[in-house]
Design a protein that fits this description.
Length: 461
């Protein structure tokens, strides 16, 4: 009876603490529990518990003990509470001690087997990145900024006193210039995007290098826009903001964990490699943040901040993609299209890109339009749909030579070579101003001048 009273009195406190400290799927689970939607809460907690999230593991244990959303099982309650305790949830030891005396030796053995399946060692082998020691990549020298281009403060935002933040990821090509920027966070949404894209395109970088040979490499930058003029107080203000964000992240706030990871990954003032940001993204990913799951998956796929383990990366990306995180869907498609993809891989990539494009993701529209314009299979090509997609994206991406290249490819696939030449020449003109290697663009221009469509992976660097 004493144990039952403890569960009844304490579960609300435990769930309230989790709900105050975290958002995303943990928050969804807490809200479902508070509404007595136990089946939803149980499913949410179980999914996160299996990723090693200690608060979810404890709440799952409590639901097993009380028979909420599942039949009563003290064996499972003991197993998941033990795992939560192992992962640092201090309250979990109370539940372990309470239920342990009710278990038979056989039940304790079953509990140990469950614990073994989801132990830190098993999770490490199945899902967790092996972090690098203070490094960006294991196989290459990282990207370095040579001549950053300072973005202009949008006049309307300045006049209205609007301030904000933008986090952007992009590839630095072997020629030292940026390609295909993805704006992953923009607050207020859309206000500073154009300024950031201009900064990225007009900056010059030392590209990543493997044995001295330049290679296309992913990197990121975190921009802060403040109405006050730049002064010596900016850096201390930034450090204070970072300190507050880190404190919230340490308390379990998933949003703060994600934001702090962005700051470490993208603020040049910090001079931190991605291996420092990745643990914060991982915490948020275990808490159910699809965006952070995308970050962890991408890191594993490319070996950024951790050892390259593509199988683990695909698992995290799949979790994020199934939650409709569009950047994860695009990254999975990009991965499937590498090299000489099979028909099955192309079909899978097309499905993911179509799903992301329907959500309005500009990068997905660009990739899907490129695929539908330049794929060698007649069953895949659809220049009319490609034109519709790229025309939707172009007003926002008019500063990107690649967008005009994609439209040129779609026009050529449709047989309108005069228009294709015009768009390709515009792409060459913009790329010339940015300092890009013009070889691939001129190759495509020659093809259109000869009235031939171009086939291949237009977006592969």
């Amino acid at each position: 009876m004493r144990g039952t009273k403890w569960l009844s009195a304490s579960i609300g406190v435990i769930l309230l603490v989790c709900g105050a400290a975290a958002r995303a799927d943990l928050g969804t689970a807490v809200r479902a529990y508070e509404k007595k939607d136990f089946s939803t809460a149980f499913a949410e907690f179980k999914a996160l518990a299996e990723l090693g999230q200690p608060d979810a593991q404890l709440n799952l244990a409590i639901m097993y003990a009380r028979g909420e959303g599942t039949p009563v099982s003290m064996t499972n309650a003991h197993a998941w509470a033990s795992l939560a305790a192992t992962n640092g949830q201090k309250r979990a030891a109370l539940l372990v001690a309470q239920v342990e005396h009710e278990l038979t030796p056989t039940s304790l053995k079953l509990s140990a087997e469950i614990q073994a399946d989801y132990s830190p060692a098993r999770l490490n082998a199945r899902l967790m990145p092996v972090l690098l020691n203070n490094r960006e990549y294991a196989d290459r020298d990282p990207v370095r900024r040579i001549k950053p281009f300072m973005p202009s403060y949008p006049l309307e935002a300045r006049n209205r006193g609007v301030q904000g933040q933008v986090y952007v990821e992009f590839k630095v090509a072997p020629d030292g210039h940026a390609r295909m920027p993805r704006i992953l966070m923009s607050v207020p949404q859309g206000t500073f995007d154009e300024a950031v894209r201009q900064s990225v395109f007009r900056s010059t970088f030392l590209p990543g290098r493997i044995n001295g040979r330049p290679v296309a490499t992913d990197t990121a930058t975190f921009f802060t826009f403040r109405v006050v003029e730049t002064s010596s107080v900016d850096y201390p203000d930034l450090m204070r903001f970072a300190k507050v964000t880190r404190k919230k992240a340490e308390e379990g706030d998933i949003g703060a964990q994600t934001l702090y990871g962005m700051m470490l990954a993208g603020l040049p003032q910090f001079e931190k490699p991605f291996s420092e940001a990745l643990p914060w993204f991982l915490k948020a990913a275990q808490g159910g943040s699809p965006y952070s799951q995308y970050q962890v998956g991408t890191a594993l796929l490319h070996g950024r901040g951790c050892q390259c383990e593509e199988t683990k990366g695909e698992i995290w990306l799949e979790k994020a993609a199934q939650a409709d995180q569009a950047d994860a869907q695009v990254t999975l498609a990009e991965y499937l299209l590498k090299g000489s993809p099979s028909d099955e891989s192309v079909s899978g990539a097309k499905i993911w890109l179509d799903r992301a494009a329907r959500s309005g993701n500009l990068t997905a529209k660009l990739y899907l339009a490129a695929l539908l314009s330049t794929n060698g299979s007649a069953s895949v090509r659809d220049p009319a749909k490609a034109l519709s997609l790229i025309n939707d994206a172009l007003p926002t991406m008019k500063d990107d030579p690649t967008s005009f290249e994609v439209r040129a490819a779609a026009l050529a696939a449709k047989g309108d070579f005069a228009a294709a030449v015009k768009d390709e020449e515009r792409a060459v003109d913009i790329a010339t101003r940015y300092g890009w290697d013009l070889g691939p663009l001129n190759e495509r221009l020659s093809s259109y001048l000869a009235r031939k469509p171009w086939e291949g992976n237009l977006l592969m660097l």
